[in-house]
Amino acid sequence: MATATRLLALRASRLARQIRRPMSQTLRSSSILAATPNRPGLRMPCLTAVPHRTLFIQTKDTPNPNSLMFYPGVEVLPSGTLEITTASDSHASPLARALFRIDGVKSVFLANEFVTVSKPDDVDWNVLKPHIYASMMDFFASGQPVVLADYEVPNDTAVHEDDDEIVAMIKELLDTRIRPSVQEDGGDILYQSFEEGIVYLKLSGACTGCPSSIFTLKNGVENMLMHYIPEVEGVEQVIDEELEQVNQDAFKAFESKLDRGPVPP
C-alpha cells in the first residue's frame, strides 16, 4: 500500500510540472511540428516570437507554379496591393528589399494578408522556401514597416472626379466583384484605361506569367464586364512594354497639343 501511494504521489508531481510548463513553450513545439507535415527530421524554422504573439507562416499554392503565397498571420498592407518586380524598385518596401536579397526571388507582391513570391522556372521551391521563411520571420520580428511611411500604395480602382460614368462603373465592378477573387489566388488585376470600348488591364502577382491568366482575363473578366456594362466591347492585357509605349504615345500627344497652342474661341 505504501508503495502504491508513493507511485501515485510521483505521478501527481509529474503532472503538476507539466501543467506549469509555459504555454509559449508548448505552442512553439507543436507549431514547429505542424509547420512541416510529412517531412520528418526537417528543422526548418517556421515561426518566431514577436511582441505578444508567435508568428506562424503558412503557404498556399497558386495556379501559377512559379508563384507561392506566404501568410505571416499579421497585416502586411492596410489596403491595396503592391507589386515589386526588381530589387532596384524595392526602395519603398523594406520587406521586399529583404526578400530580394535571396537568390532566386524574381518578384514580390504585397497584399493585405499575404505576400506572393515568384521565382524563375529553374529554381526549386524546396530550396527557396526555407530562405523566404527565415527572411520573413526576421523582418516581422524586427518591427520594421512593410512600406515606408511616406510611400502611398497606388489605388488604380479609386474613382476620380474626372472619370465618366462608364469608367466609374468599370472600376467599381473590378473592385467589388473581380479583384477579390483574383487576390485569393495571389495576384491582382489593375485598371489602366478604357478606350473605344476596350478595357485595358494589367495583371500582377501570381497572375503574371500564369498559364491560365489569359483564360481568366477573357472568359472571366471580359464576360462579366460585358454583361454588366454594355459599352464594354472587350478586354485586353497591357504588359510592361506596351504600357511604356502607351505612356510615351500619351506624352507625345500632350506635347503636340502644347505645340499647337490654345484653341481659338
Q: Which features would summarize this protein structure in a list?
A:
single chain, disordered N terminus, globular, alpha+beta, 265 residues, five-stranded antiparallel sheet
Tell me what the structure shows.
The protein is an alpha+beta fold and 265 residues long. It is built from 7 helices and 10 strands. The chain has helices at residues 2-19, 23-35, 94-100, 125-142, 165-183, 213-228, 240-260, and strands spanning 47-50, 53-56, 58-61, 67-71, 82-84, 107-110, 115-118, 187-195, 198-205, 234-237. Strands 3-4-7-6-5 form a 5-stranded antiparallel beta sheet, with helices on one face. Strands 8-9-10 form a 3-stranded mixed beta sheet. Helix 6 links the parallel strand 9 and strand 10 (234-237). The longest helix has 21 residues, at 240-260. The radius of gyration is 25 Å and the shape is globular.
Number of helices: 7
Largest sheet: 5 strands, antiparallel
In angstroms, what separates the terminal alpha carbons? 114 Å
Rough outline: globular
Residue windows where pLDDT falls under 50 for at least 5 positions: 1-53, 242-248
SSE order, one letter for each helix or strand: HHEEEEEHEEHHEEHEH
Tally the beta strands. Answer: 10
Spatial strand sequence of the major β-sheet: 3-4-7-6-5
Which whole number gives the mean pLDDT? 77
**Rounded to an integer, what's the Rg over CA atoms?**
25 Å
Structural class: alpha+beta
Portion of residues within helices? 40-55%
**Oligomeric state of the chains present here:** single chain
Beta content comes to 15-25%
